[in-house]
From TrEMBL:
Positions in coiled-coil regions: none
Alphabetized InterPro entries for the sequence: GH43_arabinanases, Glyco_hydro_beta-prop_sf
Protein name per the record: Glycosyl hydrolase family 43
Keywords from the named record: Hydrolase
Keyword Hydrolase listed: yes
Recorded superkingdom: Bacteria
Length: 324
């Protein structure tokens, strides 16, 4: 039997040079939640683990999210748990050697319009915005405890907060809410494409007949970094998906959006030629090679994918070794 789905868009022919030469997936695993692992790819579709599927940096803990700063260095945010009051930021010149850059302790209850915020910090993420010369760091924080009868109340109360910084050592003012919507959002990352900013997010409401978009990956759009953002567009993923991560295709003409079917079940992939959609899903992660159009190592979980150069890819493979 041969795969019944056409090959994904965005690939380059054998004699063509890719615009985006290689990719790094910094992630955790189902068995070792919160610790840092690496997988790499040269086509954005087929991913291979590094370091014999072992941790690449012992000191890190969190949902790894990496951005490249104006100094050419990489920055990664993390925290020990949602209860940890601190966000730790790490830096690296080469994605191989990481050192602590700073610690940020937000005063969550100082956020305007969010006085009941609980002291919890979920999945901090970083993005460097070249036009403003500032980093934006986002995370989610709830304001209601779950109850025995309604454990979902806690998740529905999550709101996305942010803070700006020129250097990730000093931070501007108090954390602010990124969206003014009345429903929960988590796992928010920001990207700028052309003249628009896009907030990639998980709709954290519970899915019902009357809120069909619950627990899906969606995108909101704005003209400026901090908004105001539009209401999110229609879902990109099925329900019960989270931890979205976005990369451009090798030819830079398509977008690949990966997301996890939790808890650690599989990864899905949706594709579009622009972030406004429409999106469609590729077949993959079934471990049937004649059907899969993409593949990831088994048991990978939350993380981020970034583009890297061929020389960075080669250095990572040389340092850690690759398993194919």
């Amino acid at each position: 039997m041969f795969a019944q789905q056409p090959n994904p868009p965005g690939q380059v022919k054998a004699n063509e040079k890719a615009v985006n030469q290689a990719y790094l997936f910094a992630h955790m695993t189902h068995q070792d939640y919160g610790k840092l692992y690496y997988s790499v790819s040269t086509d954005g579709l087929h991913w291979y683990p590094l370091n014999n599927k072992k941790r690449v940096f012992e000191d890190y803990h969190g949902h790894p999210d990496i951005t490249k700063g104006p100094d050419g260095k990489y920055y990664m945010a993390g925290n020990n748990s949602d209860d940890d009051p601190n966000i730790t930021i790490w830096t690296s010149p080469d994605l191989i050697t990481w050192k602590k850059h700073s610690t940020y302790t937000p005063n969550l209850k100082s956020t305007p319009g969010y006085a009941e915020a609980m002291q919890r910090i979920g999945a901090p993420k970083l993005y460097y915005d070249a036009p403003s010369g500032k980093f934006i760091m986002t995370w989610h924080t709830p304001h209601l405890e779950g109850t025995k009868d309604d454990g979902e109340r806690y998740w529905a109360s999550q709101r996305t907060l942010y803070v700006l910084s020129k250097d990730l050592k000093t931070f501007e003012g108090t954390p602010k809410r990124l969206f003014d919507w009345s429903f929960g959002t988590i796992d928010v990352s920001i990207r700028k494409v052309n003249d628009s900013y896009y907030a990639i997010l998980k709709d954290e409401s519970y899915p019902t007949l009357y809120w069909t978009t619950g627990k899906t990956v969606r995108i909101a759009k704005a003209a400026s970094l901090t908004g105001p953002y539009s209401l999110p567009a229609e879902p990109i993923s099925p329900n019960f998906r989270e931890a979205p991560t976005l990369i451009p295709s090798p030819d830079n003409k398509a977008w690949y959006m990966y997301y996890e079917q939790y808890p650690g079940v599989s990864y899905g992939l949706s594709m579009a030629d622009n972030l406004n959609g429409p999106w469609y899903q590729a077949s993959g992660y079934t471990f049937y090679s004649d059907w899969d159009k993409y593949s990831l190592p088994k048991d990978v979980r939350h993380g981020c994918m970034i583009t890297i150069s061929q020389s960075e890819y080669d250095a990572l493979v040389k340092k850690f070794g690759i398993e194919k």
